[in-house]
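Hey team,

Filing this mostly as a record. A colleague (T.K.) asked me to run one chain through the structure pipeline before their review meeting, and I want the input and output archived in the tracker in case anyone asks later how it was produced. No errors, nothing strange. Just documentation.

Input sequence:
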Amino acid sequence: MNEEKTFIICGNFRGGTTAVAQLLVRLGIPMGEKMDPNNNCEDLEFQQLLLRDELDRAELVRLVRQRNERYGVWGFKFPGAHGHMPALLEGFRNPRVIFVFRDPYAVADSEQRRTGQDLYEMMERTINYNLRMTGLLRSLSCPTHPISFEQLLVRPDTVIDRLLAFLDVRLGWWERRRLCKSVGLKKDSSSYGYGKG
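Output structure:
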């Protein structure tokens, strides 16, 4: 992975983006500097930038320049980042976008338990997010890669092999095995957190 690249991970809130971001971190790809204390693999500076309705282009340029000076390959994760695409991508060096999909009911159920929001409204929002991401997968000019959160849990070997190919990362047998074994739900099924490994 010698070429300069920027990886952007997006998807639904409570949709599995943290699990994918943790895989990149385990592969040694920097995913942020001032990280959210909630352990969700979100760079606070990009999080604050992308939570706004309007993209602050000057701030985006500053953050990207700063990261590019420090790293040849880096990335960040923010679930709703696709809401600012394709305009967001103009500021990045060789962007590569990973879209994480998760079952709409599972996302809505997790969000309802966490925040008390209406289950059906959350399902509707998830479906709309999925439709937007599907449209972007077809239309963006940069390389894109879809990941199913459910498939990551059920068939981590297959999903991780495809992800490694997209990232252009080659691992030895033992490293790959450890990476695959790091994927999993917490023992209490009320959370979509992931095992450490």
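Quick notes for T.K.: The longest strand covers residues 5-11. The chain is about 45% helix and 10% strand.
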